[in-house]
Each structure stands twice: as C-alpha cells, then as structure tokens.
Specification:
Blueprint (H helix, E strand, L loop, with lengths): L2 H12 L2 H20 L4 E3 L3 E8 L2 E4 L6 E4 L2 E8 L1 H8 L24
Helix pairs in contact: 1-2
Amino acid sequence: MNKTDLVDELALRLGSKRQAELAVETVTDLIIRWVADGKDVRVHGFGVFERANRSARRGRNPRTNADVPIPPVVVPRFRPSDTFRHYVAEPESLPRGRPAARRKPSGAMTESA
C-alpha cells in the first residue's frame, strides 16, 4: 500500500477523497515535524515514532577492502506496539467491525470470559 492507496481506502471510510488526502498529509506532516524536533509521537495500539542516534563506526569498501569511517547520524525510527506486533503475527485475531487500534473509553469495563 502506498500513499495513494491509503488515501483511497480512507476516502471510502470518510466519504471524501479531499478530506482523506488532507488527513493523511496532516498526520504525516505532524509526525515528521515532531520527530525532527526531537519529540516522540506515540499512537496507542500502533507504535512510537522517534529519533535515534547511530554512533560513528567503521565500514568496509567491498571493492577495495579499505576501512571507511562512517560518521554518527540521527535517523527516524518506528517501534511497533505489542498490539500491532500481535496482529501482524496473528492476522486472524484482528477485530471485526471495529478499528484494530481503538482505545477503550476511560472507565469502560472489560468483558470477562
């Protein structure tokens, strides 16, 4: 799925392609800006977008076999939530009729088996 596919799928749920496009662009813009500013973006049931520091290290040029210094760099990182990992490992457990990452309302009682 690419951005166009995401917008099209969201438009089916929202009823407007323009609203879907605006939603996707706004969310991605906010995530990029917040992470670039050093802030974590945590989405319950989905994961965390954050900045990560990669230390300087030594690499090797495969053609010449020479050591190559690789400088330290700051990169974006995504860490999926346990819920997301569970659904990827067991897709048959995805809930039917409700969003997979929906948070229970505060004070809601859980169903007992």
